[in-house]
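Hi R.,

Here are the chain sequences for the assembly we discussed:
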Amino acid sequence: MSYFDAASSAPLHPVARQALLASLDEGWADPARLYREGRRARMLLDAAREAAAEAVGCRPDELTFTSSGTRAVHTGMAGALAGRRRVGRHLIVSAVEHSSVLHSAEDWETAGGAVTTVAVDRTGAVAVEAYETAVRPDTALACLQSANHEVGTEQPVAAVAEVCRAAGVPLLVDAAQTLGWAAVAGPWSLLTASAHKWGGPSGVGLLAVRKGVRFAAQGPVDERESGRAAGFENLPAIVAAAASLRAVRAEAAQEAVRLRELTERIRARVPQLVADVEVVGDPVRRLPGVVTFSCLYVDGETLLHELDRAGFSVSSGSSCTSSTLTPSHVLRAMGVLSEGNVRVSLPAGTPAEEVERFLSVLPGAVAVVREKLGAPVPVTVRERDALVVNALGKRCPIPVIELAKVIGDVQVGATVRVLSDDEAARLDIPAWCEMRGQEYVGEEAAENGTAYLIRRLS
Amino acid sequence: MSYFDAASSAPLHPVARQALLASLDEGWADPARLYREGRRARMLLDAAREAAAEAVGCRPDELTFTSSGTRAVHTGMAGALAGRRRVGRHLIVSAVEHSSVLHSAEDWETAGGAVTTVAVDRTGAVAVEAYETAVRPDTALACLQSANHEVGTEQPVAAVAEVCRAAGVPLLVDAAQTLGWAAVAGPWSLLTASAHKWGGPSGVGLLAVRKGVRFAAQGPVDERESGRAAGFENLPAIVAAAASLRAVRAEAAQEAVRLRELTERIRARVPQLVADVEVVGDPVRRLPGVVTFSCLYVDGETLLHELDRAGFSVSSGSSCTSSTLTPSHVLRAMGVLSEGNVRVSLPAGTPAEEVERFLSVLPGAVAVVREKLGAPVPVTVRERDALVVNALGKRCPIPVIELAKVIGDVQVGATVRVLSDDEAARLDIPAWCEMRGQEYVGEEAAENGTAYLIRRLS
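And here is the predicted structure of the full complex:
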């Protein structure tokens, strides 16, 4: 079994395991107590905080251990927004943030706050200027991930942090995908991360709040963790988190080069091995271990199932795997093909042979799915002026498959009208047109759905 | 070293350790994923939920794993109060709840809610009738602990739950101190608990919400744990929590009898071995392993330090150990002596010999502290009509020590006036009068503090 989904959760690092075991016997007591067991727990907690703070690049008293990365984001955003309530109620986020950031933003909007969502380009990156433009006199907080979790694109956090500092606005950086690789550069104000993303245990998140940042913790008072993370400290796991962060950092520079070569190979080979594939995300400014691509005429869930059967665990931002049946907000914001989406995220230590085996298995897996779905094979051109494809009630990728089947049936210059009520079609039909060199004319409301107009160009 | 502070945090149960180790290798992946590692994690999570639900006495889909008991209380109270906002904004809590409940109540009051605090008797128990009286047409939620964490007194939760059900008000039971011993009886609506209190790992709390209870989770949306506990599941710890709960339950009946004998012996022997001691809490309806007593003329922190030096880890609700320098809210609500307070809470498996050793060490430790503080020894009676003791600026237990030193200096029927600005004096001077058979006349405002009037009766 090859586990290629480290961006969801990394397997436990050996150092994390060792530290966890060692502190199970020493770290179960209440670090707030003054007796021997309590003092011992307090020493472990203090040492873990110092180690983690050094890796983050902040002071120990600026760092809080939370119960998860999501909780760190929720607490960090709520506290920073409340702390700057006098300044205003305006929040800036990028369109491709983790759901914990976007859900906090929704919550803030529901409570009467204003939110500006900064768009990304086709690689998934924000423009520094877009944050500059978004800042207003009443901006209380800006948020930006250090790198995107779905496509691996690195964001210009240092430059955005400078822009924010110049404007006097605190920037919260969600560093969940990068903290294991390096500290976040630039004058950020708040930072969040999650231990199980770098090979630490679950149950531990980090929230750093720089001195001088106005912060008002929300919810019931609690004395632990500077009042920023209620409840008994998850101590053995905290020790394991800090120890493994230090360990992965020691290996990071070398391992990043190696993984980058492996993902570079996937980026290069997949489009050669599989027809009709779009590799997405920035080709250069990206995470070492993440590569994402989408396959035309493929249902993401079925493809994941095929790859699982072949021994590969990957994930997908495809419309067809999500519980809500809408394409991932990241792919949508980038405007790239979402169907048949596959994210490969290699854990540290992945052998090159496993990647080679993946490349040898992928074409067959895609072919199986395409065959099941009746994906198009070249057809004879017939003369007709216009054609309507009724794909109402059919889910992604069927509308695109139907379109591809008939595009050759109309004359060059004529149009095909695809009727669909599937949200993914709005993204995938234009993406197909771009991949195929056909013209996407636009959409219009139709009975029971939307009509998408495509003009045949070649 | 004898660890006698299980009510704060119990040492890790061997089964918890085994289960944690076993699931470290199987339970690190995201249980929401469909590939092999994800399915395996999902199976572990489902099995843990079933086991824990059985122990709680609820359906698995009524049970959520949170990151701590405190978090379970915060989430449970906020969700239940929000879910019944249309009914009203009235909340009932007892005066001796855990700080997580009382802090949630404060938060609710700050947000415009109304709170009724139900008083307790001298044993620390609420009266069922008091809840009956407190319920109003606009009561959204009532909260009651199953047993008190500081003095071990069991609360009449089943009867209070019946009263609440009859009134159509949900009852949240904080079962942190009892879930390892037994399921909570009665028709409760919500229940919270904390794994590290029963020998499970830290980082895991339980929140049960019965079907039919209106519940509106607060804060940003998150899909995990039925939307009631944001963030990646703390899976290996959850598995360990469930396994150890099952294990401690299997041993509970027998171990409860054994620990009850040990604490009964402490209850009986301490007043024989140490002069001027008040054992507090209900003598019969109490937790098996908890016994609490207060020692006159003793500074709690110094006594804890002496006991720590002698190899015993205990805790204290004494005014002198808390960071805020006020007596524990529990002892205050009970109206018992707070100075020199010691809580002994025996972990399962405590050998009888350790208890005997504690009893042999305690008198000397108390004597050392009393000598340090210059506690009174019998003095010659002298004739005087009234006496003023100026204890301004002196901390507990000095005011009571000064009072005890001079009470013999006035005639029977005459009064002593103690000036003090220490909050603990308000509780400890009346408690001393009761223990000593002297009359506590009352208090009045005085310059820079309060004057406490005591009439000598014997």
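Chain A touches chain B through 65 residues (CB under 8 Å). Chain A has three domains: 9-248, 252-373, 386-455.

Let me know if anything looks off.

Best,
T.
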